[in-house]
Amino acid sequence: VQLQASGGGLVQSGGSLRLSCAASGFSSDYYTIGWFRQAPGKEREAVSLINSADDSTHYADVVKGRFTISRDNAKNAVYLQMSSLKREDTAVYYCNVRRYGSDYWGKGTLVTVSS
Questions:
Q1: Most buried one in 13, 60, 67, 70, CB count within 10 A?
Q2: Model pLDDT, residue 29
Q3: Which residues of the chain have a pLDDT value below 50?
């Protein structure tokens, strides 16, 4: 499984960014795909995930109403539209696939939100 994330960068507080993740190397009907993040000195946390079986979505409480996850099955891609960004959203964001109990990670993309 290969995951290639992109779209991070520097943005002012209140701004928006869109992260993209291209997934390849697997085919399965049952997996979750989405985004985690890790801020300096903190543990990695789930941000938003999609369940492939029914396209149900999960959002961490701290991003609900601000972030939107979507996917393009034809491109095997998942996106995270981030709006109303806050300084506390600053972190390295990782694309993740969880499949049959195994986690696969892409290289992170850094999101920095300045005041």
A1: 67
A2: 74
A3: none
